[in-house]
Design a protein that fits this description.
It contains 10 helices and 10 strands. It has 291 residues and is α/β, with parallel strands linked by helices. β1, α2 and β2 form a beta-alpha-beta unit. α1 packs parallel to α10 (270-290) and α2 crosses α10 (270-290). The chain binds guanine. It catalyses: (6R)-5,10-methylene-5,6,7,8-tetrahydrofolate + NADP(+) = (6R)-5,10-methenyltetrahydrofolate + NADPH; (6R)-5,10-methenyltetrahydrofolate + H2O = (6R)-10-formyltetrahydrofolate + H(+).
Length: 291
């Protein structure tokens, strides 16, 4: 692997090892073993892959886990009742509902129904608001993972000009807030209404892209020495029936990596770090609830 890779897979592996050691110690001390519950609605292939990855990571570090899979036809009311049940279950420490949900179910309503103490995705309004606190709660998992990855590569965020392309609720918006409030970076947030995107991306010391538009960022849009984090992960079909596919990020990797000091690959960059932060959040939630 070339030496400018921000290797999320390797760093996530290190975090898994650190957590596995903590879990083993907790076991010998008779303390509560973290327990993650994941709710999957429907049979979307990408969502199944993501949830399976999360469960596999739980197994690897020694967490307990529960996977609940409901048909796409489940009513909003029934799903909310399931969330209530998991909120009240004293053995469950962390709870995630994989998004997206079917159209007849409000993801905002379901997400907001998760107890903030168990909200290890960091999606609830309370945890979101606490980003701007000296004592943040459970941080949104993907932005938290990105900050952790950059820190473990000794990237100086304080005073750096970070350009965030994308302002989604799950990644872009909380990422901008964390970089500004928690890391004291200078932050520019760009989105689909930004005029002359390249004039902003060219100023970036650290460029983070989460738009879901494969190949949006090309080599001419970045400066030499930039640090690039690509959150995009689009399945590009390799045959007409979409049975085969490859994964492409929002960044044209070949051209941008020639100019970048550091850059995340897709896959193997941000994805594993999101799972690692989910595990870190689950440990934190367990400690807050059970010591
Ligand atoms: N869908 C895409 N990314 C995520 C994530 O990080 N958490 C959940 N719950 N759903 C997602």
């Amino acid at each position: 692997m070339s030496n400018n890779i921000l290797d999320g897979k390797r760093i996530a592996g290190e975090i898994h090892e650190e957590i596995a050691r903590i879990v083993a110690t907790r076991k010998t001390e008779g303390k509560k073993i973290p327990h993650l519950a994941a709710v999957l609605v429907g049979d979307d292939g990408a969502s199944q892959t993501y949830v399976n990855g999360k469960i596999k990571a739980c197994k690897k570090v020694g967490y307990e886990y529960t996977l609940l899979n409901f048909p796409a036809s489940i009513s909003e009311e029934k799903l909310l009742a399931q969330v209530d049940r998991l909120n009240e279950d004293p053995d469950i420490d962390g709870l995630i509902v994989q998004l997206p949900l079917p159209e007849h179910i409000s993801s905002t309503k379901v997400t907001e129904h998760i107890s903030p103490q168990k909200d290890v995705d960091g999606f609830t309004n309370l945890n979101y608001g606490r980003i701007t606190s000296k004592h943040p709660g459970l941080m949104p998992a993907t932005p938290y993972g990105i900050v952790e990855l950059l820190k473990r590569y000794d990237v100086m965020l304080k005073g750096a000009h970070c350009v965030m392309v994308g302002n989604s609720r799950t990644v872009g918006a909380p990422m901008s807030a964390i970089l500004s409030y928690q890391e004291n970076a200078t932050v520019t947030t760009c989105h689909i209404y930004t005029k002359d995107l390249a004039s902003f991306t060219r100023q970036a010391d650290v460029l983070i892209v989460a738009t879901g538009k494969p190949g949006l960022i090309t080599g001419d849009m970045v400066k030499d020495g930039v640090i690039v984090v690509d959150v995009g992960i689009t399945r590009i079909p390799t045959d007409a029936n979409e049975r085969g596919y490859y994964l492409k990020g929002d960044v044209e990797f070949e051209e941008v990596s020639k100019k970048a000091r550091l850059i995340t690959p897709v896959p193997g960059g941000v994805g594993p770090m999101t799972i690692a932060s989910l595990l870190l959040n689950t440990l934190k939630a367990t400690r807050l609830r059970a010591g």
